[in-house]
Amino acid sequence: MNTEVLCRTSPSLALVKYWGKKSSRKNLPATPSLAVTLGGVQTETRVTIAEKDSIQLDGEAVAIDRFRPLFTALRKAAGRKVHFRAESVNDFPSSAGLASSSSGLAALTVACARVLELDLGPEDLSSLARLGSASAARSLFGGFTLLPAGGTAARQLYGPEYWPQLRIVIALVSHKAKPISSRTAMEATRDTSPYYRAWLRNAAELLDPALEALDKRDIEALGTVARLSYSRMHAALLAASPPLLYWLPATVAVIRECRALREDGLSAWETLDAGPQVKVLCLESEVEAISERLQRLDPALKLIVASVGEGPVCESREL
Ligand code: PMV
Predict the structure, then answer these.
(1) Do 111 and 232 reside in the same domain of the chain?
(2) Are residues 23 and 46 in the same domain?
(3) Which residue of 32, 90, 154, 309 pairs with 137 in a disulfide if CB–CB is 3.0 to 4.6 A?
(4) Rounded mean pLDDT of 181-197?
(5) Residue ranges making up the domain that contains 282
């Protein structure tokens, strides 16, 4: 009898960004990352054992190259030469800089491990998920997570209940898939950006102030560090040859509006990943005012409000 496992996971939004690899082969991050798991947006992945490996994302077949190291490690852990059929859907745009690889690879890892009946703890699963995408190592946990530089697995720093008032307003400025994957862009930054070394040095220095701010639940201090982290990551990208620019005019407009919102006394702290979307860190009591201002700025913006989310949830059924 074949079992189908369904896993739901949430994306991991880095406040201190991972950008660059210590080892490409092992997919080890060169910078530490501190992240929040986003509640209210999710990936749902179904996995069964099959004749050959196949993956569908939002109904379309995707190349499995990227998943090979994970599948190989899973087969090795199980001691069986099995193959997987996976179908994944996101309730948010995929590959558009919304951290879909974090939730996608985490869901895939947990579902495959369950199908194989592997007895693995969260740390082992996090380490396996990292083989597919380093940010996925963090999506294995809810709440606030840390993946150290060179680390094989992420760990949870605080559970989802730690900061119930925190909100992330996601401003979707584009539904299109990003023109260049984070993997390719990371390699180009390392190989061609004269700012890459400075980025690595500085990224490590941003961790302590971010941890301290999180420890105090100080949104202004945390937002200040998060803004430096994404700005410096994108500065290193812009200095690559050819320059890498993910931002769209609407991205810049939202960034500027966040500054205006802060000048008006609201805690609207934006952050960006490898894509044009802007994620705005704020408090629950400010969501309405911030959403209204962003919508007035650009009526075409789609806004999603996320809170601090939970880790993976799975269920199995016999086919
Ligand atoms: O895990 P990847 O390969 O999708 O890279 C994620 C990179 C960023 O989203 C830009 C930063 C991060 O730490 O999530």
Answers:
(1) no
(2) yes
(3) 154
(4) 96
(5) 166-308
- E strands, 40-127, where? 43-50, 54-57, 60-62, 83-90
Give residue 134 CA to ligand 1 midpoint distance, Å: 7
Same domain, 280 and 174: yes
Q: How far is the CA of 196 from the centre of ligand 1 (A)?
A: 16
Same domain, 173 and 155: no
Residues 197 and 127 in one domain: no
Region 174-181: mean pLDDT is 84
126 and 20 fall within a common domain: yes
Residue 35: give its domain's CATH number.
3.30.230.10
Count the Cβ atoms, other than its own, within 10 Å of residue 232.
Answer: 18
pTM for the whole structure: 0.96
For residues 71 and 203, state if they share a domain: no
For 263-289, write each residue's pLDDT tens digit: 999 999 999 999 999 999 999 999 999
**Dihedral angle over CA of 305, 7, 70, 154, nearest 10:** 50
Is the shortest distance between the CB of 15 and ligand 1 below 6 Å? no
- Is 135 near ligand 1, meaning CB less than 6 Å away? yes
pLDDT tens for each residue of 244-264: 999 999 999 999 999 999 999
User: What residue type is assigned to position 207 of the chain?
Assistant: L
- Give the DSSP per-residue string, 234-251: HHHHHTSSS------HHH
